Amino acid sequence: MKHYDVIILGGGLAGLTLSIQLKRKKPDIKILVLERRKDNAPKAAHKVGESTVELASYYYREIIGEKEYLEKHELPKYGLRFFFKSHTKEVIESRVELGPRKWLYTPSHQLDRGTFENHLASRTQEYGTEFLLDAMVKDVEFGKDQSTVTYKHNGEEVKATCRWVADATSRHSFLKRKFGFEKPMDHAVNAVWWRLKGVIDITDWSESEEWKNYPEVKLRYLSTVHFLDKGYWVWVIPLGTKNTSIGIVADPAVHPFDTFDTYEKSLEWLKVNEPLCYKMLEPETPNKMDFKILKHFAHHTGRFYDGGMRWGVTGEAGAFLDPFYSPGSDFIAMNNTWLSDLILRELGGEDVQFRAEIYEQTHLGLVESWIPIYQNKYLLMGNAQVMSTKILWDWAIYWAVPALLFTNNAFTDLRTLKNLFGNENGLGHKFRKIHEQMQKLFMDWQKYDTEIFEHKFVDPIDLSYMLDFQTNITRQHGDKLLGKVGENIAVLEKVAAEIFRRVSNHAKGTSLDMAVNPYTMDLENPIPEHNEALNVPRDEKIITDVDVLWFYEEKQFA
Ligand SMILES: Cc1cc2nc3c(=O)[nH]c(=O)nc-3n(C[C@H](O)[C@H](O)[C@H](O)COP(=O)(O)OP(=O)(O)OC[C@H]3O[C@@H](n4cnc5c(N)ncnc54)[C@H](O)[C@@H]3O)c2cc1C
């Protein structure tokens, strides 16, 4: 029976990148990757997970070492781009557009999942990993010093032993089902998607030359495009193989799944909800490459890592929340970084049980704190002012804290984790608290927001703090990292307080100079009785920044 240091169950995005991450750190590590698919992945019509954002792009480019491949064979990405509802959704240039008009400083990519996975499979074999197709995992028996994995390869039952087992079987969730650590996730959104042969550039969807030429030609094409209205968003993502991915994601409370769960119904649904998409996409039907559906795709987990029994789950075998901000690969990056660190330390002779508990608590805490970003928020997607403020907030916190912590290797540094999360006043808890407050504010605000806005363009980089957060994502801060995180959170406090002042002024007529404590602010009780010392003063720079995202007429907050 063959023995390995690590057997990875499932050779998709998470499993393959984990194997490469391990090999790049320890070239002599013995790894077996078992993938049940019989052949190479098809181009384009393979899996979703095509749009990446900054944290994941840093992981794929720098940590997995695929910068050159990505720049040559996959598409560069021009940020996330959002189009809100207007009176006439048929006229694309009438819709409020939120997205960058220049290249973002920190790069990201659009992935054709088929070509990327095939490439990763070749790369991992070049690094010396055994990668088997047609290898279906059947069972794992955990032992004190080694575990035994049983799999079916080319129809034959085979057993192999290993020190560590990594479950990367995605929704098959091998270990979660074996040990029963499923956990309910209260976010029941549904999705369908299909790929079309050929390039679709939404810039061609307008007759207006002025709109077409601003921002620069092709930059809208390279974005992950979102069309939004109450209860849903529709994606258009370009793929490097010159194909296009289209998807509908919707909350069943507004759009029941049986109204769009077949291709024919999806087109009818588009005709009603996104008539321009219908007009442009329906004639492409002969170019349809696939059509997939996924009901209630968000799922949670009670466990991630076990340092004693030496196993971990990664990718969608653990948890998945929502694709709205394309975070799937971000979570793979963090997940694999924790898991590979545990594996390498343990193989080096370290007892990693305590460390595994800390990583698991941090990881679970991160997932939990991300849930309010999406939960019930589909109900806000028809409110351009509330939703664009929320998107800019969600982006800001992501760039300012988790993305920065990741690129600075903080997630595997116990001292930093202790400083962040070790006590109730730590920066990690402040971050979580202020972010929860803002998610509540967006919900409370909705009932006061009744206007439909048109012909507006918001570039996140026109907000000076957004520009600062974006350009600094990969800057290395060494032992000054916590100081930088603290500075970023202080800016976020000012932004939160300023947004609250504007919303409260609009909704309740309170003064724009009102004292605000961003940790206790409450729209239903906007003039609080609290400790003056905790109030955040107004800041001229932040006022100018918030002006950029503020659509209400000035008289409403004069
Ligand atoms: C609607 C939707 C849209 C999304 N969009 C994005 C996006 O734009 N950006 C983003 O970053 N993320 C996105 N995601 C998330 C993204 O799809 C996942 O993060 C990613 O695909 C997970 O990779 P994985 O390796 O865990 O799973 P997969 O890539 O699915 O790999 C799992 C592998 O395990 C194999 N397998 C399963 N069972 C066994 C077994 N018993 N034996 C052997 N092999 C097995 C499977 O064949 C498969 O190849 C989206 C998710 C959804 C639901």
Secondary-structure blueprint:
Blueprint: E1 2-9, H1 13-25, E2 31-34, H2 54-63, H3 67-73, E3 75-76, E4 80-83, E5 97-98, E6 109-110, H4 113-126, E7 130-132, E8 135-141, E9 147-153, E10 156-167, H5 174-179, E11 182-183, E12 190-197, H6 209-212, E13 224-229, E14 232-238, E15 243-250, H7 263-273, H8 275-281, E16 292-294, E17 300-301, E18 305-306, E19 311-313, H9 328-347, H10 353-374, H11 384-400, H12 402-407, H13 414-421, H14 427-445, E20 457-458, H15 464-471, H16 481-508, H17 540-549
Parallel strand pairs: 1-2, 1-10, 2-7, 4-13, 5-20, 10-19
Antiparallel strand pairs: 3-6, 4-5, 8-9, 9-10, 11-17, 12-15, 12-16, 13-14, 14-15, 18-19
Helix pairs in contact: 1-4, 1-9, 2-9, 7-8, 9-10, 11-14, 11-15, 11-16, 14-16
- What is the name of the CATH topology of the largest domain? FAD/NAD(P)-binding domain
Please, how many domains?
3
- Taking all residues together, what is the mean pLDDT? 95
Tell me the number of strands: 20
Strand fraction: 15-25%
Relative helix content = 25-40%
Rounded to the nearest angstrom, the distance between the terminal CA atoms is 77 Å
Q: By CATH's scheme, which homologous superfamily of the largest domain applies?
A: FAD/NAD(P)-binding domain
Q: Number of helix segments?
A: 17
User: What CATH architecture of the largest domain do you see?
Assistant: 3-Layer(bba) Sandwich
Top CATH class of the largest domain: Alpha Beta
Q: If you compute it from the alpha carbons, what radius of gyration comes out, rounded to the nearest whole angstrom?
A: 24 Å
Biggest pleated sheet: 8 strands, mixed
Q: Tell me the structural class.
A: alpha/beta
- Which hetero ligands occur in this complex? flavin-adenine dinucleotide
Taken from the alpha-carbon principal axes, the silhouette is globular
Low-confidence stretches: none
